[in-house]
Design a protein that fits this description.
Layout lengths: L2 H4 L3 E4 L5 H12 L4 E6 L1 H11 L7 E4 L3 H14 L1
Parallel strand pairs: 1-2, 2-3
Length: 81
């Protein structure tokens, strides 16, 4: 049984534009370990995911253009939990 079957563990990834992060997130999501939330510039995340052949369906992207805004968005998500 995967976590998708029982509960939706949401995990925030602050460096969603990093190819290594995208690879790890893809594996974790496919195995049912979490429901990823990627922080970063949406267009860049989508471009890099496409280059890597990673499907983003089911993952949430919170797009921010400025690094400070990414940090503030991350803090809001942490306090929301």
């Amino acid at each position: 049984m995967s976590l998708h079957d029982s509960t939706e563990l949401r995990q925030v990834f602050a460096e969603g534009e990093d190819k290594r992060v995208l690879k790890a997130v893809s594996i974790a999501y496919k195995k049912g370990y979490c429901k990823p939330i990627l922080l970063g510039k949406s267009s860049l995340i989508k471009k890099k995911a496409k280059e890597l052949g990673i499907e983003l369906e089911g993952m949430e992207i919170i797009s921010s253009k400025k690094p400070l805004q990414i940090q503030l968005d991350w803090q809001k998500l942490v306090t929301r939990s």
